[in-house]
């Protein structure tokens, strides 16, 4: 494998995993301190498992056929998505960012990625555009923005960690 591809994959892995882990730490804080429900990655896994079978949009993902391993699939999809976004950050921000990571590019990309949830995942699962079919769409939107801010902070920290060892 060419060195440039190996470098991109390593950076994507570290940056994406750090960003996703930061988002998960925020979810734990929300649960323990503010008594918010823990994230349920099962429905997300169910959605991801239906996509290759040709079904992207559901009226209600809870009514769609289930899979035995959908919770694990949801967790895997959550982290793989973070890794893909980590790779996108490295590619878009370029080698200068990798050599000297700054917060703003990571935050901007993280905020942009909210759109994937609002305009693909949530409608795909039956929640409507930006959770518009849920009883509390503005709360969900705000929590999405805060969670993705944590994701951006985590990607930045991942980039900084890489400068220490790589």
Describe the structure concisely for a colleague.
By secondary structure, this protein is mainly α. It has 5 helices and no strands. 73% of the residues lie in helices and 0% in strands.
Throw out a few tags for this protein.
166 residues, 5 helices, single chain, 0% strand, mainly alpha, 73% helix
Radius of gyration, Cα only, in angstroms?
17 Å
Please tally the helical runs, counting DSSP H or I stretches of 4 or more residues: 5
> How much of the polypeptide forms β-strand, as a percent range?
under 5%
Tally of distinct domains: 1
Order of helical and strand elements: HHHHH
Could you say which overall geometry the principal axes of the C-alpha atoms support? globular
- Estimated helix fraction: over 70%
* Number of β-strand runs: 0
Written overview of the protein:
The protein has five helices and no strands. Helix 1 packs across helix 5 (137-165) and helix 4 (103-124) packs across helix 5 (137-165). With 166 residues, the chain is an all-alpha fold. The longest helix is centred in the N-terminal third of the chain and has 32 residues, at 3-34. 73% of the residues lie in helices and 0% in strands. The protein has one domain.
């Amino acid at each position: 494998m060419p060195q440039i591809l190996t470098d991109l994959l390593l950076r994507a892995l570290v940056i994406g995993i750090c960003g996703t882990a930061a988002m998960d730490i925020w979810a734990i804080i929300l649960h323990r301190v503010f008594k918010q429900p823990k994230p349920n990655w099962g429905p997300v896994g169910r959605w991801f498992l239906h996509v290759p079978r040709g079904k992207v949009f559901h009226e209600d993902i809870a009514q769609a056929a289930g899979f035995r391993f959908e919770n694990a699939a949801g967790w895997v999809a959550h982290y793989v998505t973070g890794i893909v976004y980590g790779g996108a950050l490295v590619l878009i921000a370029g080698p200068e960012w990798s050599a000297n990571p700054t917060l703003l590019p990571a935050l901007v990309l993280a905020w942009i990625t909210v759109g994937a949830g609002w305009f693909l995942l949530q409608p795909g699962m039956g929640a409507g555009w930006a959770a518009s079919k849920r009883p509390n769409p503005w709360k969900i939107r705000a929590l999405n923005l805060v969670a993705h801010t944590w994701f951006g902070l985590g990607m930045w920290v991942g980039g900084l960690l890489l400068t220490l060892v790589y």
